[in-house]
Amino acid sequence: MTAEDIKSAIDAAIANKVLLTYPQLVLFVLLSGIAAYLGAYLKQKGQNLASKEDIRGLTKQVEEVRNNYAKQLEDYKQELLQRSRVAEVAEFFTEWGRGESADKIKLNGYSTNLSLWMPNDLYRELGKCVCYAKGALTSKEVLIRVRKHLLGDKAGDLKAEEIIHF
């Protein structure tokens, strides 16, 4: 109850000539005041609860967006790392393909980098290939294996003989 409601109730009582004794009047005013206080208190509590729910919902949405962007960023980092590794392999084969004019220092640098991330069996196949070991895979076959290692399910079904070479 608001102050106007209390005033209206008192005015109505006076207009209808309802006479209250002083204790009844005091009790009426006191109960009206308590009712007004409780009404305002409960209204504020309801607003606070609604605000908490709104904040909780917004916080959840912000967290979802944050997690989504974090995942996208992590995927992008992995893609960049993958591209970097692909470039290392391509640079190695490009330099190695120069034959006798290849820069041995560059080749050593590339092979060292490749040894840090390539699986052992794949690195060994690469070594056999560049040393022309008997029964070794061709450079294109090694590339296909590297492709499968780096791309996994996305590697597709490209075959060694389909790799373009000039």
Which features would summarize this protein structure in a list?
single chain; 166 residues; mainly alpha; 5 helices; 0% strand
Characterization of the model:
The protein has a domain at 3-117. It has five helices and no strands. Helix 2 (22-96) crosses helix 3, helix 2 runs antiparallel to helix 5 (139-151) and helix 4 (120-130) runs antiparallel to helix 5. The protein has 166 residues and is mainly alpha-helical.
Poorly predicted runs: none
Structural class: mainly alpha
Strand share of the residues? under 5%
End-to-end distance: 91 Å
> Based on DSSP secondary structure assignment, what is the total number of beta strands?
0
- Rough shape? rod-shaped
User: Roughly how many Å is the radius of gyration?
Assistant: 40 Å
Order of helices and strands: HHHHH
* Number of H- or I-type helical stretches: 5
Residues in helix, %: over 70%
Mean pLDDT across residues: 88
Largest beta-sheet characterization: none
Fold blueprint:
Layout: H1 3-15, H2 22-96, H3 104-117, H4 120-130, H5 139-151
Helix pairs in contact: 2-3, 2-5, 4-5
Short overview:
By secondary structure, the protein is mainly alpha-helical. It contains five helices and no strands.
